[in-house]
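Hi F.,

I've been meaning to write this up properly since the lab meeting, where we talked about keeping a consistent format for the predictions we share between groups. The idea is simple: the sequence comes first, exactly as it goes in, then the structure tokens exactly as they come out, then a line or two of notes. No screenshots and no reformatting. I'm using this chain as the first example so we have something concrete to point to.
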Amino acid sequence: MTGKASSGAAPRANSVIPAPEHGSVEHTLIIADLEKPVVRKFLDELVPWLSLRMPKVQVEPLSEFKSRYGELVAQADEPPNPNLAIVLGGDGAMLTAVRVLGAHPVATLGINFGRVGFLAATPVSHWRETVAGVLAGEGVVEPRMRIEFELKSERGPSATGVALNDVIVNRAAHQRMLTVSLTVGETWVTDYRADGVIVATPSGSTAYSLSSGGPILLPGVGAMLVTPICPQGLASRPIVLQPDGQLSVELTYASGMTTLVVDGQAYHPMEIGDRVILRRHPIDFPLLAMPELDPYRRLRERLGWAQQLGHDGINGER
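Output, unedited:
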């Protein structure tokens, strides 16, 4: 059986990398958060299990992954090309892995050792059957939309990058509110008077945007979400936009330091007059998930809906 896209995702023009086919995985890259003792212990079980099933198993510590992988890419005639990446950690580890692998995406499975697990979706208790299913060609790909951005400033060269979750214009701790102008294409939409503005993907809709009052978007929805952070006016609400246009977010007023934050991991200073141009990245990132872990079940488990309603969280039974 060959890999298949997850059900419920509408067909899109963007490139989608498929799940590995049966017998195709010869090189697995493990990105491990070794600061967690439980991850170090789990490696003693995972690595021998994988080594019996393929020629090459490569382990990279999360803390060194960016620099080490960058060196490998720079030294090689062709970039390293694992057939499968497995991330051991939480959603932060997943964001780091996706950022590093972003130029050469590979089907990636997250085994959750964190607290939430929206991106690292596989519970540790289900790792064996999930990984075995992926190697057998039964993996389910959730194509995750990404945002590419360009920070334009008259002060110097532009900053560019790609985000899986969100791009945020954020004020400093002791600064008054910002004024941020939102334009879609050539059309001005509104000015937000707020502590900041979040531009999120569907993956990022369950991160900072959710805690700021934004809606939840399922992973297969093609959209960009703009959410103001603590806006001054009650009429300033989140807005869901088509993903294929260009967004412009301009900082028109600030009383102090303002920062552009990318996936909570990269930071760029901003000044009045700076603009952030945002577009959908042409290649969705291929995250792997358990076939039976539908997005609604994931929401019930991660957000505690099942416990609040008196259900068991798995079968929906009381």
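Notes:
Confidence is low (pLDDT under 50) at residues 1-12.
DSSP finds seven helices and 20 strands in the chain.

If this format works for you, I'll send the rest the same way.

G.
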